[in-house]
Amino acid sequence: MKCPNCEKELEEGAVFCPYCGKDIPKETEVDKAIRQENPTENETAFCGVCGKKISASASCCPYCGTTRNKQNNTQNMGKEFEGYNQVNSYNQSYNQSYSYQAGKPRKKKGITGIIIAGICLAVLVIAAIVSINILRPAKQAFLYMKDSSHVYANQYKQGSDQRIDKESGVIWQYVSNDKKKLYYAVNRDSYDASYYDIYCTNLKKLKDMPERVARNVKAATFLKNNNLVYANTDNNLYLLSAKDEIRLEKNIRAYYVVNDEKSIFWIDSNRDLYVQELKMNAVPQKISSGIQYISQYNADGSAMIAHKDDGYYAITDMMVETKMPSSDDIIYKSGITDNGEVFEYYAKQADGQQISLYDFVEDDMFDQDQQITEPDEEQYSHTVLNKGFWGSYETTEVDDAYYDALDQYDEKVQRDNLREQLKQYTLHIDQTEVFYYSSATGEQSLGVFNQLDHTISYNDTSEPYLALSYGQVDTTQKIKFSEVYQNGVNWAESTITDRLNTNSGSKSWEIYVGPTSSAFNAGENAGYLNGIEVDTEHGRAYIKVGNYNQSGTNSQDVLVYDASNGGVTSYAEDVNSFQLCKGHTYYTMNELLYCDGNVIASNIEDSFYLNILPDSDKILLEEYVPDDGSGVSKYNLSIIEDNKIQGIERNVNAFEWMDEDQIVYMTDMTSYDSNGTLSAYSKGKTQRIARNIKGIVPMFDNYMGNTINSDSGSSYDSGNYDSDYYWDYEGDEW
Q1: Strand pairing report for 361-362 and 479-480
Q2: Are 278 and 257 in contact (CB under 8 A)?
Q3: Same domain, 230 and 160
Q4: CA distances, 437 to each of 443, 514, 515, 606 (Å)
Q5: pLDDT by residue (tens digit) across 551-569?
Q6: What is the pTM of this model?
């Protein structure tokens, strides 16, 4: 036998070549058969497809069946063997044929390739499983109180309850932005609810013990990146991430997280204002000094309204401070526009208007009194000849008519004196001067108004809209002088004042957008301004005006202001409730629900509220059911989507909107402190969860603590002030 590499003669059965050191392929039974059939033709070759050693004289490979290339029939098969590539399913020949020199075998495929292929396949399978788990949404959960001391988590189905708290005092819950973690706060002191501990549990592993992530917290803000900002009872400020916790500042007075969550502001114990990026190892930057608190700030913190000892200041671009002119005046509205311009509407008391009381009197006795003059006694006297004992004598007598005329004259004099009193007696008509201030344009007077009885502004702090109504001093509706003569000056003053206070005179109505005003007619039954809702996308503002109806029903007219022409026109009359939602108008009238003027539902309660979930096309309709005497609040809940209504439940006592398509609610409560039935609405289906439930743990968006009036983020205030003023806390705003 020969070495297939160096062609040296070898001993039969050799495994290695002693000349070149190469492995010698083991002879198979087929090789032996070929060699025995052709003992004189010991020339060998190797198949170009499978690599097996075959006889050079063979017409095909006995292992894979590959035939000899017809083009090479005349070639020396002892020197070369060519075959077709049968792997090509389209029978296309490669440009280069498979050829091997005689005596030089192709290297055999080992098990290494199979192992590598198996490893690659396993890696792909593992990666697919991991990606599926990542893309699969985490199971949502919510907390409820089964009794006064135990809190359970439920994943929107019966039998999925898991007790997570062994102590009482769970006061709120929060689901992380990635829906993987559930946070809840536990109040450890039943006598002091101002601080709490925060726990975290994995929504995929509810059976695991919750982890306490923060202690003695007074205020907490959950960020969209699942980090946590909180202040504790020592007024220390912390930033907590999944990997680390750092103390941003100690002994702070207040902190403010702006809406874009890129930075945080705080006021330290020296009343210095700092800003710092919300990331680890960021360096704080000082902005201002002497700050009592921040009343408002915009989404990125580039503009804010700060209160100092001497008044309010507009801080723009984090460095420019301008004292606002309304420090000691009545502020109707203040805010910050989207482009960072600080503005406010405010009023100052004007000198007022003095009007004579006589201007409100119709003198129905004036012409009569003009005809009355002082009577001449001589004209009413005559001589009488009298006879007596001593003879005759004459006397002068005055007729009784003189005394009647004199009485009339005396009364006329009294009335003239009364007229002088009425002319001298003046009524003070209150007047108010209204101003508009902008950090870009300064202060402007909007005018002086008589009897400014009502003003109302748009709630959003980024839009400068203000509507007001004021009375006109109407002297045409007078009282009669004869009535004043009968009842006196005090009666006249009281009667006229009452008429002025009840605004019996005509009213004027105006809406301001910035410093620009548009007058409008609110209607004959208009009584008071009820609210403004602004559709910034379409440049419209809807003005709600309450009516004085004889039927006593609570209704309102809705007028629409169009910014394109500055005009105000009627939109809807005698509606019960009105709300602007996602650029559409919704209102009820005669138990019908309208959307943009079209009826979309019937049998709707008069009073309703639309609850909007951010980043969702769904609207939750809450219909307020009239009290049945039990004192328990009741609502009819429905989902509005694409102007179609899907009912959820009627006579709901309490509910929490947990997510876009997940609502938890309670029914069957007979009193405000009784137990009820717990149900859940999820993915279009409603199911009962448990009975005899104490209540639902409130759900918070991302902040829990003492809040400052701002729509641009969340904030905390320690309440440690040097001055003597105090806060009045209502709900979520100071």
Answers
A1: parallel
A2: yes
A3: yes
A4: 4, 9, 9, 39
A5: 555 688 999 999 999 999 9
A6: 0.67
